[in-house]
Design brief:
127 residues; mainly alpha; 5 helices; 78% helix; elongated
Amino acid sequence: MGIVFLGVVTYIISTHRDLYDRLAERLPPTLTPTIFMLIIVIILPPVWGLFGLVAGALYHLAEDLYPDGGLGSPNFTFTLAIIILSLILTSLVILIRRRVSWRLGLIVTGTLACIFGWLLPLLANLR
């Protein structure tokens, strides 16, 4: 998910040539746009890794409490919860930033739901 997120950020940066200037206007004077971008590139991939660890722990808990499969996943409850979470997060982003492209929102939502909703349970059951 971190790679997908960085890909989307790279796409946004490459399609909005004036992004650097707009960031310079909105950021505090002590924080330059270059430092801000470095923070995104360096900090966010480990944050997605931590999100994956938490999702794995929640999957383990869901597997113990609700072990039945569905939706093409070994655990219906966990997959449904991840789908709902990804839709809520995308809805919040679209409500906050109305100019967000629906295609990018669909890509991020679909990727989040696929990686954590289906791929995580399937890989966890390969043992």
